[in-house]
Amino acid sequence: MDKLIAKDLLSIGAVFFRPDQPFTWASGIKSPVYCDNRLTLSSLKVRNDVENGLADIISKEYPEAQILMGTSTAGIAHAAITAHILHLPMGYVRSGAKDHGRQNQIEGKLEKGQKVVVVEDLISTGGSVIEVVEILRAAQAEVLGIVSIFTYGMQKGLERLSQANVKNISLTNFDCVAEVAAQEGYIQPEDISRLIAFRNNPSDESWIGGTK
Fold first, then answer.
1. For 50-84, what is each residue's pLDDT tens digit?
2. What is the pTM of this model?
3. Bridge-partner residues for 33, per DSSP?
4. Are strands 168-173 and 142-151 parallel, antiparallel or unpaired?
5. Are the CB atoms for 47 and 92 separated by under 8 Å?
6. Cα(106)–Cα(139) distance, integer angstroms
7. Closest C-alpha among 137, 95, 148, 85 to residue 114
8. Contact 130, 164 (CB under 8 A)
9. In Å, what is the CA distance from 51 to each residue of 27, 71, 80?
10. Which of 47, 46, 33, 55 is nearest to 194 (CA)?
11. Which residues pair with 142 in a beta bridge?
């Protein structure tokens, strides 16, 4: 599954490696990878693979799930489609409470004690998805864990998930996509070590212009 999804993401440019011309994140960090999993929604084949994959993970890893909650905004569509496949209710969590109406931060009906799986598109440092978990816990839901399409596997993200005592299972990950990218000719095999160096320490830019 991880290699299938990796090939899917690469084929539509949802994950795009550019080690010789790094992208600049909002934080200022130079990155050899660009990730936009919203593109999966525009490809019928990739969308089916992703949503069926997420449904399969939830069925196997979180069989007690009673409701899915998407992260705003990228996780909403995936939560909705996956919930439809699994015949489960869904909702989503806003990044901030509304300043009008009922001022909801959790959209959709969520009962106290309900067993929730959070649906996220990608995880890097883990901050935003853990905020969602904490909001759901504050509403007295039981968060079983997270499912996501792609994870960088960055140490900061892994540590945050561990500290929050929440499990994440992703369809694919940075290392797998880098390996498949080399096999499929998107990057050179010798680029993999540079990509892994970035993943291990994003603030260290020594991989840029390094030996290929």
1. 999 999 999 999 999 999 999 998 999 999 999 99
2. 0.91
3. 17
4. parallel
5. no
6. 9
7. 137
8. yes
9. 30, 15, 10
10. 33
11. 115
